[in-house]
Amino acid sequence: MSEVAVRDEARQGGAPGELADRLEAYRTELTGYCYRMLGSAFEAEDAVQETMVRAWRSYQRFEGRSSLRSWLYRIATNVCLDLLKGSGRRARPMDLASPSSVDTPVGNGLPEATWIGPVPDARVLAETADPAEAAVARESVRLAFVSALQRLAPRQRAVLILREVLSWSASEVAELLGSSVAAVNSALQRARATLAADQGHGGRGEGREAAVAPPLDEAQQALLERYVDAFERFDMAALTALLHEDSTLSMPPYALWLRGREDIVRWMRGPGCGCEGSHLVPLTANGRPAFGQYRADGRPWAIQVIDTADGRITGLNSFLDTERLFPLFGLPPRWTDVPASSGERSGVRPGERPAAG
Predict the structure, then answer these.
(1) Strand ranges (DSSP E) for the chain?
(2) pLDDT digit string (tens) for 249-259?
(3) Does 274 share its domain with 354?
């Protein structure tokens, strides 16, 4: 639909079904925007739903002075800024403390609002035919980047996402925020400086995965297939060969995290021995390959998001909130209910989305 048609429909009112379809067309990209702002897939979906409700209710007052897309982003930004008032920033375990030792007690889980959570790629990455644009989109939802965004003041966060990720002009962002171009440019400079300082000291968990990750090539696919084989056979020698020497393991909602393949393997042989006999179902999350992990008895256990670089695995991010995360990723509550088209049952390769998702 042309811009003129959008404005005409705004003045005259469109059919409810057509309006709903037009609003729905923006759901994925709006969810990606809200996820980067909020750090939670669940909060992002709630924010987008509130955006749609507000847009529906106020559509008759939309006079078409801007595009429908810009108008929706303005509403979504206001919803996110409202949600962020008085709330603490979300983080990863490695943002909160130094690495633990294998002998450190796991402790009690922290509230869900503490953590950056995983998100299925399909919920936040709109389809695009431009490989460079797709690479930037994947990079902008990786866990480390979303965590870095949470260090920014909310309005700086919005400015950086709109300018650097979505490629809006300074004047467009100024109009959206009801600000000036000078104020937007100043906010962007401060946001860049904060992120540069964060990268300068490396973050406690930041590493080689910080570079933009290309689509999985054959070597990366082979690495992930070897990981699945080693993990499911619980072959610690094979797993050791796949891990980078500085690889990390984290397990929200627990604050404990480990660095170094030796500690990770010691953990797997000790406190993590309950993972023996697990089954992995391939997924994609946060622009990275991921897996749904079921334990030997068929219970859901974790969503694993995998970071890779230089032919090795650099990060194992295991999220244990299975009650909410498995439905989010379209995974059934028992391994025996996983469709035969998923995981090892059909030869779906790691990094591909299973039929269940």
Answers:
(1) 243-250, 257-259, 279-285, 288-294, 300-309, 312-319
(2) 999 999 999 99
(3) yes
Same domain membership, residue 72 and residue 48: yes
At a CB cut-off of 8 Å and minimum separation 6, what does 32 contact? Answer: 44, 123, 124, 125, 126, 137, 140, 141
- Tell me, yes or no, whether 221 and 346 share the same domain: yes
Average pLDDT along the chain: 87
The full DSSP string for 159-212 is: HHIIIIIS---HHHHHHHHT--HHHHHHHHHHHHHHHHHHHHS-TTT--GGGSP
- Give residue-wise pLDDT tens across range 3-47: 334 334 443 444 567 888 989 999 999 999 999 999 999 999 999
Summarize pLDDT for 167-199 with one digit per residue, the tens.
999 999 999 999 999 999 999 999 999 999 876
For residue 118, cis peptide bond before it (omega within 30 degrees of 0): no
Residue given tokens 């990786």 in the structure block:
142
**Which domain CATH number covers 230?**
3.10.450.50
Q: Tokens representing 127?
A: 């389809």
Q: How far is CA 61 from the centre of its chain?
A: 34
Contact 123, 28 (CB under 8 A): yes
Q: What share of the chain is helix, strand, coil (3-state, %, to 5)?
A: 55, 15, 35
Residue of 340 and 58 predicted with greater confidence? 58
CA dihedral angle for residue 292, residue 213, residue 139, residue 194, rounded to 10 degrees? 120
**311-350 tens-digit pLDDT:** 999 999 999 999 999 999 999 999 988 887 665 443 345 5
Q: Which residues contact 273 (CB under 8 A, 6 or more apart)?
A: none
Query: Which residue in 350, 315, 354, 352 sits closest to 221, CA to CA?
Result: 350
